[in-house]
Amino acid sequence: MKINPEYKELAWQGLWKNNPGLVQLLGLCPLLAVTSTVVNALGLGIATLFVLICSNATVSAIRQWVPKEIRIPIFVLIIAAFVTCVQLLMNAFTYDLYQSLGIFLPLIVTNCAIIGRAEAYASKNPVKQASFDGLMMGLGFLAVLVILGAIREVLGQGTLFDGANLLFGQWATELKVEIYHLDSKFLLAILPPGAFIAMGFLIAGKNAIDEKIAQAKPKKLEQAIERVRVNFEN
Amino acid sequence: MAFWIASSPHNHQQSETSALMRMVIYATIPGIFAQWYFFGWGNLIHIALAVATAFVAEFTVLSLRKKKITTQLFDGSAILTAVLLGISLPALAPWWITIIGSLFAIVVVKQLYGGLGHNPFNPAMAAYVMLLISFPVQMTLWQPPLSLLAMDIQLADTLSVIFTGYTPQGYSVEQIRTHIDGFTMATPLDTVKTNLTQGFTVLESMKAPTIGKYFGLGWEWINAGFLLGGLFLLSKKSIHWTTPVSFLSSLFICSFIAFIISPDSSASTMFHWFTGATMLGAFFILTDPVSGATSVKGRLIFGALAGLLVYLIRKFGGYPDAIAFAVLLCNMAAPLIDQYTRPRTYGHKLGAKK
């Protein structure tokens, strides 16, 4: 089976080259505020992923009927509708996680990464590509959230997956890994300044990898234009 | 009589970075000595730890950045940062506090911003604030002066407390800090602040054992030591007089006004001058040429702003002392201050339209 190159490009853009967290730097507010543990990050990431896929699909499906002048309010309404769905679902099934995410769950509405994709991609492309784009962008965002959450949780509390039961139910309590024991938490990693610093290191790391790749690539040789003397008469 | 006239430069000063940094480090000696005399070996151990860590961190980052290691490593700036951090830490704080603080100061605050001359914040104070908000318990373990301690603490005891948390006899830091009468003692600033919230007047809190005869047992001498070092730096022209003078007078004026209005709830002016880190901040921290304002007028504003902030945070804020926070806030304001206090270029008129 041959993969459509457009899908490949969308995946590459969403996961790495145009990652909403690391490159576009959109939606920084939830990114920095709730990533104090992996589970919080995962919860918010999944919620964002879901909203992104649904809103992209819907925006793309109604793109013929949306007047250009009022497209932004319409996109916001669509996004808000899905966010409300997610919020009600989480309130019903993962109440503790809903509590710990607090205001940042409804604030997904204002996440620029979502409205940005609706505006830049979904409103111009067919449903299939638009939903795939939402999936990839959401996964990219989710990955950054989880990595940041893992760094901060390990540095701050010395654990991983603390409170996984909030998201997955009782059995997940066993998932908690204690990497090392801290008598006192490293509060900076848990507080927002730690998020900014860790985020800076992540972006720097991504840029360093990009630079390595660019260096390793063989440079394209400039096509030398040879001038040939054509007028032999003189 | 004819004078022999040498060709220019007439008065050459060896003002290399390393010479300046060495001078500032020497100037901290009286204050450190007072700290050692009244509070024991703790701060000296922290200074040694911080310097060692700073050296390793500086070497690692410089070699990663492919810089000239020999000149930059020995320019003394990292040592000075480490010394200032070691001075400001609580004497009985655990060893990893110093290591983390020193690493943060050198790697994140100094080198990641581009090394010496490019850091927007004072590394020692940024590291101090980072430690204070990250480890509030360990960073408030202030040790009372030795003369008030129930037990005698020697070098070996201090080392053991810093590295294991207990003296060889098995006393914890909390037990060391506890007075013979069974109450825990804090710094003079902390004592006054806590007493005020409990409804005592300042005059009543001045009778606390930590305050002693004047403004704080031991603390007044430490501040006097740093004042002496600062005056030495001024006489050597290593630092400019503007920042310390405007900082101290601003703090003086603020506390004077408050003292006039309500003497029962405000400490005296000299109490503000001679407790906490006032003199260290005035002469050693705020005068940092990299992260401060540059012009004379700018430095006056910079110092006055710092004094005001220190007073406001000491009086109304959540922390007893405020030098580090005030310095960081002023560091943030420094570029703006510089922007609005550009000195007039010679030959240009004041207020002339371009």
Helix content range of the residues of chain B, please?
55-70%
Largest interface: A-B, 8 and 8 residues
In angstroms, what is the radius of gyration of chain A? 22 Å
Helical stretch tally of chain A: 10
In short:
The complex is a heterodimer of chains A (234) and B (354). Chain A has 234 residues and is mainly alpha-helical.
Description:
The complex is a heterodimer of chains A (234) and B (354). Chain A has one domain (20-216). The mean pLDDT of chain A is 85. Chain A has helices spanning 5-17, 28-33, 38-61, 71-93, 95-101, 112-120, 127-157, 165-168, 187-190, 192-216, and strands at residues 159-160, 177-178. The longest helix of chain A is centred in the middle third of the chain and has 31 residues, at 127-157. A two-stranded antiparallel sheet of chain A has the order 1-2. In chain A, α1 packs parallel to α7 and α3 (38-61) runs antiparallel to α7. Chain A has 234 residues and is an all-alpha fold. Chain B folds into two domains: 16-182, no CATH class; 186-340, no CATH class. In chain B, 60% of the residues lie in helices and 0% in strands. Chain B contains 18 helices and no strands. Chain B has helices at 17-27, 29-39, 42-64, 69-73, 77-88, 95-111, 123-134, 136-139, 155-164, 173-177, 188-197, 202-205, 219-235, 242-261, 269-274, 278-285, 296-316, 323-340. Chain B is globular and about 70 Å long. The mean pLDDT of chain B is 85. The A-B interface holds A 184, 186-189, 191, 193, 197 and B 108, 130, 133-138.
Write the layout of secondary structure elements.
The complex is a heterodimer of chains A (234) and B (354).
Chain A lengths: L4 H13 L10 H6 L4 H24 L9 H23 L1 H7 L10 H9 L6 H31 L1 E2 L4 H4 L8 E2 L8 H4 L1 H25 L18
Antiparallel strand pairs in A: 1-2
Chain B lengths: L16 H11 L1 H11 L2 H23 L4 H5 L3 H12 L6 H17 L11 H12 L1 H4 L15 H10 L8 H5 L10 H10 L4 H4 L13 H17 L6 H20 L7 H6 L3 H8 L10 H21 L6 H18 L14
Helix pairs in contact in B: 1-5, 1-13, 2-13, 3-5, 3-6, 5-6, 5-7, 6-7, 7-18, 13-16, 14-16, 14-17, 17-18
